[in-house]
Amino acid sequence: MNVMCSTVRVALQTVGDSAITAPLAGHVESCDSCREAVGLVASVRADLRRLPIDEFPAPSGFYRSVMSSLGPVAVPDLEGRHSKTVPIAVATAAVATAAASTAVILHLRRTRVA
Amino acid sequence: MHREAVERLEPHDLVDKARHGDRDAFGELVRIHQDEVYTLAVRLTRDPDLASDVAQDAFVRAWRAMPKFRGDAKFSTWMHRITVNTAWTHRTKRNKVRLDPLDDMHREPVSTSIDPIRAGESASAAPVISKALLDLSESVRAVVVLKDVYDWGHNEIAEHLDISVTAAKVRLHRGRKELRVRLAPLVDGGE
Q1: B6-58 pLDDT, tens per residue?
Q2: Do A78 and B35 touch (CB under 8 A)?
Q3: Residues B179-190: what's their mean pLDDT?
Q4: Which residue, among A23, A24, A18, A52, has the nearest Cα to B153 in the 3D structure?
Q5: Residue of A nearest to B58 (CA)
Q6: What angle separates helix B11-19 from helix B23-45, to the nearest 10 degrees?
Q7: Looking at chain B, which residue has its C-alpha nearest residue A80?
Q8: Cα–Cα distance measured from residue B132 to residue B157, given in angstroms and rounded to the nearest whole number
Q9: Does B89 contact A at CB distance below 8 Å?
Q10: Cα distance between residue B189 and residue B191, in whole Å
């Protein structure tokens, strides 16, 4: 193994087969050992790239589980302000409290007038 | 919105409606991407039960962050990033519970319980490659998966895995070297 072979090995180890450009590519063409090493790296990468991205199907019931976990509706803020999640129960409670307070105040005023 | 209606929408319309809080539209996105997200989670965790938790958690996080999704990347790419972050969060929590130092180089793979049913163009090679990938140690496998399967850049990998770029490259080299050893019989035609 000569200096060029060592350089090819280091390039394969640190970057991969994409690092085999000229003049390394010229050496690889003429060196059986380096050509085999580069070919092996390239084939492994190609095989990995071909693995299907949906290789493993989601388990049964997954969709239902996700949808039941989503929680409160996120209130979108598309103008750049912070978006807030507004729990509907909290909002309803706030409205009910305000309505009840108003009713109490009005009742007290009528009582005072009377 | 009824399911039949959302099924007819284009992906970018689904994303737009989901950003506005349309749960049915987001549900359709879940249906479309659930296998993809689960597959990435499996490849990162090597544990089907943990992968299910990670994938579910990732979709929940995505739902909460939908209003902030600007659409400058594909929805699937965005989901991949969330899934990786979620998997690493689960990993960090799990490691805190461990009494012994993490030594996943010697951990027995659980990939026998994961059955890849879809093959790529090479019907005989894909399952072998998939298994070899799953048999890598966790930290090395994450880098190889993100770089060589999902084509992430080194900087992006380092950022999401909270490691240096140098560490990412070292692990990538180690993972590829190990894969070459495991897959050499396949490349040689089984000789």
Answers
A1: 777 888 899 999 999 999 999 999 999 999 999 999 999 999 999 999 999 99
A2: no
A3: 65
A4: A18
A5: A66
A6: 100
A7: B68
A8: 21
A9: no
A10: 6
Q: Determine the length of chain B.
A: 191
pTM of full prediction above 0.80: no
Count other Cβ atoms within 10 Å, centred on residue B27.
21
Tokens of B8: 């007819």
Query: A24 to chain B nearest CA, in Å?
Result: 19
Name chain A contacts of B19, Cβ cutoff 8 Å. Answer: 76, 78
- Closest by CA to A13, choosing from B72, B172, B74, is B172
Mind listing the pLDDT tens digit for each residue in A72-95?
665 554 544 444 555 565 666 666
Looking at residue B27, what is its pLDDT? 95
Q: Which residue has the tokens 């990938």?
A: B133
Name the residue type at position B145: V
